[in-house]
Design brief:
By secondary structure, the chain is mainly α. The chain has 16 helices and four strands. The chain has a four-stranded antiparallel beta sheet, with no helix packed on it. The two termini are 55 Å apart. The radius of gyration is 37 Å and the shape is elongated. This is Phorbol-ester/DAG-type domain-containing protein. Keywords: Cell membrane, Cytoplasm, Membrane, Metal-binding, Repeat, SH3 domain, Zinc, Zinc-finger.
Length: 576
């Protein structure tokens, strides 16, 4: 509950900083562009108004009324825009219209200290606004290129699969290799496309929307500053007009640009809901109707992971690591250069060097775009590196055991340290009544959930029992270990500890019983090596685990009865 409150507070804070961050729908781009253009046009209009107002102070009051009417119509329909910037602008027009008396002594103030600086200060924001929407189109083109690559990889994947199915010649090995390589290319491009789209939706696009909000805040500040300057100048020239123009200045100074953006966001998002980045799912190839089932079953069914192609995946992994390191360094350099340019622009703006500010804005926009492209490439490389997280490439469906879990990608020491820390920090909880089934006898064994402190394999399938706690089930009697879905495959079916005890002799333990077939294993191996049906070579696509299951039991299952566990069981049996 506390975490939910924290997340809600973070979202509210982020919305206050950038109210436009959730307006990522493509159909809202035109509305944002129109709103940004309207703000730029309004700032330009306010600056021009101050310029011409200074000249109008030298003429008759009739000219002032005409000027007010002209600029009111030029600024657009006020009912369509209820922002704070619009409100103070309309209030200023009303005050100027009410004040029909010209003031010749502050005409120079209006022209030289208010109008011209406003136009010069808003020029680089106009350039930035144009670049933001241009770079958004460039980002979308990058995503479209990635989509085209994905479609081509998919087409090559289908073509290689169809060629492999219809092949009746003797080059089946090469066709299988081409099929697997096409699969790898398709999976890599699929991950890259998803990562680029997600990075664009979660980082690049919010960054562009943040720039739009930044442009609006700057323009709003310039417009309000110009309005306040005009009002203050008029207030200083006459005591009769002081009260009216001071109220306009106060209203302009309390305008909060983020409030206008929040109102705009609410109006635009009434019929639009925030959309998460679309993730493309791996689509397995289906068997054509004209191909028999027996032929299709000879080809392994692949899934969303890399498969061995007969060549080592180490060069590709090393290339990805080098590219990852290069992108990290490139992003660092771009970020440092961007920070330097922003500092230079801020100092130039403080010194009223607006020509230099406009030149720096061009470089800043370009650096931001290059940084976004580098982050897209980095996201794609990281997504492709995740396919190598388990060490070797994955195996086809039906050819191997369980898929490696996410926690198995790190080193063994690191994994078990994390598991131990999670066990120490977790609070003790009482197991619900439904967990009593762990103690029931099923197929002659008394199973219960067990937390292993060491790496322990399943006695049925041979795979490692994975997880941080309660990795599998363990029999209380014979101490056999198994996955929850492998307990029906445990041999012997009856637990040796529950079997009736014979009157004479010491009964063999489980590991002593499984040691008996080892003596008979060499003749079987000899027969297989002499040309029997069980060949010593591994068939194409078959994992080593299956060959291990078909081979005689390894010496790991026949431990010496002189271990402490065996001695303890022997002593218990003697007492019985």
């Amino acid at each position: 509950m506390q975490n939910n409150r924290n997340n809600t507070g973070d979202d509210a804070a982020a919305a206050a900083v950038n109210p436009l961050r959730d307006l990522t729908q493509p159909n809202l781009n035109d509305s944002l562009k129109q709103h940004n253009g309207s703000a730029l046009k309004l700032v330009q209009t306010v600056a021009e108004f101050a310029q011409e107002l200074g000249a109008a102070m030298e003429s008759h009051s009739a000219n002032i009324r005409r000027l007010v009417d002209e600029f009111r119509s030029r600024s657009g329909e006020p009912r369509l825009d209820s922002s704070g910037m619009r409100r103070v602008w309309e209030n200023l027009l009303r005050q100027v219209e009410a004040d029909a008396v010209s003031h010749l002594d502050f005409a120079a103030v209006l022209q030289q200290q208010l109008s011209r600086p406003t136009i010069e200060a808003s020029f680089h924001r106009k350039l930035q606004s144009r670049k933001v929407f241009t770079y958004r189109e460039a980002y979308e083109q990058e995503i479209a290129k990635s989509e085209e690559k994905l479609q081509r990889a998919r087409a090559d994947y289908k073509r290689s699969y169809a060629t492999l199915l219809t092949n009746e010649g003797g080059n089946e090995t090469e066709l299988k290799r081409a099929y697997l390589e096409a699969h790898n290319a398709y999976v890599l491009q699929l991950r890259a496309t998803n990562a680029i789209t997600e990075c664009y939706q979660s980082h690049c696009l919010p960054s562009l929307l943040g720039e739009i909000a930044e442009v609006y805040e700057e323009l709003c500040g310039l417009a309000c500053k110009c309005v306040a300057g005009i009002s203050e100048a008029a207030y200083e020239r006459t005591s009769e007009q002081a009260k009216r123009y001071q109220n306009v200045a106060k209203e302009a100074q309390i305008v909060v640009p983020s409030n206008d953006l929040q109102i705009l966001a609410r109006n635009l998002s009434v019929n639009a809901t925030p959309r998460k980045p679309v993730r493309r799912l791996f689509v397995a190839l289906s068997r054509p109707e004209q191909v028999p089932i027996e032929r299709a079953t000879q080809i392994p069914q692949l899934r969303d992971e890399l498969v061995p192609t007969g060549t080592s995946t180490l060069p590709l992994m090393e290339d990805l690591k080098r590219e990852h390191d290069s992108l990290i360094q490139k992003i660092g350099r771009l970020q440092e250069a961007l920070d330097t340019l922003i500092r230079m622009q801020r100092k130039s703006a403080e010194g009223n060097l607006y020509t230099k500010v406009a030149e720096l804005q061009e470089n800043i926009s370009m650096k931001r775009f290059e940084l976004g492209v580098a982050q897209l490439d980095l996201a794609a490389v990281q997504a492709q590196k995740e396919l190598f997280g388990g060490g070797e490439a994955g195996q086809p469906d039906g050819m191997g055991g369980r898929k490696m879990s996410n926690g198995s990608t790190g080193s063994t020491k690191h994994k078990w340290l994390k598991a131990f820390k999670s066990l120490k920090t977790s609070s003790p909880t009482t197991s619900p009544p439904a967990d009593k089934k762990n103690n029931e006898i099923e197929d002659g064994h008394v199973w219960r959930e067990y937390t292993y402190r060491k790496i322990t394999p399943c006695d049925a399938c041979g795979q490692v029992l994975r997880g941080h706690s309660r990795q599998g089930l363990r029999c209380r009697g014979c101490k056999v270990n198994a996955h929850s879905d492998c307990i029906n495959q445990i041999q012997p079916v009856k637990c040796p500890s529950l079997a009736p005890k014979k009157s004479g002799g010491i009964p063999l333990l489980r590991r002593q019983k499984t040691q008996a077939p080892v003596d008979e294993a060499p003749p079987a191996d000899h027969r297989r090596g002499s040309g029997g049906s069980m060949s010593g070579t591994r068939p194409f696509g078959q994992p080593l685990m299956l060959m291990t299951q078909e081979s005689p039991p390894s010496t790991s299952s026949s431990r010496s009865p002189e271990t402490p566990t065996m001695r303890r069981e022997l002593s218990v049996n003697r007492k019985r």
